[in-house]
Design a protein that fits this description.
By secondary structure, this protein is α/β, with parallel strands linked by helices. It contains four helices and eight strands; from the N terminus they run E-E-H-H-E-E-E-E-H-E-E-H. The chain has a six-stranded mixed β-sheet. The radius of gyration is 14 Å and the shape is globular.
Length: 140
């Protein structure tokens, strides 16, 4: 898996910790090298900082537009591996697409390469749901 890591990424403290834990549990550490790069290259929000509604975090639902093909925009929800259901649009953060989305914002382009060397890219049109910025998420 290869994710092309853009310069500007921001992670929440909880996402940073959750991804570190997920990576530590992976038997094939080499398959997650790109996600390690995301952790290293990202800024981490201060614990008390508000989470921007435009930031893609675990649990975010995003509207994407393929940059190479003229197809209708589509929605994906970024999740942990145990919750992944690709056919329903729930994509694991450990997948090439999932790793490429984490920490980006609406308006940025996510780029990835699958294990079969197929490249993809999608514009993040909007973040439809940002769980850490949602009022009900703050009440937890």
């Amino acid at each position: 898996m290869e994710t092309i890591v853009p310069v500007e990424r921001t992670l929440t403290p909880s996402d940073h910790l959750r991804v570190q834990r997920l990576l530590a549990q992976q038997p094939d550490a080499g398959a997650c090298d790109s996600l390690h790069e995301v952790l290293v290259a990202s800024d981490v929000l201060a614990a008390a900082s508000p989470v921007p509604v435009s930031l893609v975090t675990l649990g975010s639902r995003v509207l994407l537009q393929d940059t190479a093909r003229e197809v209708a925009p589509y929605q994906l929800t970024l999740c942990e591996p145990q919750d992944a259901r690709p056919a329903q649009g729930w994509i694991s953060v450990l997948s090439p697409v999932g790793a490429s989305l984490l920490g980006l914002r609406a308006g940025q382009v996510a780029r990835w390469r699958t294990p079969s060397a197929r490249e993809g890219a999608a514009l993040i049109v909007s973040v439809l749901f940002q769980p850490e910025a949602a009022p009900e998420a703050k009440a937890r």
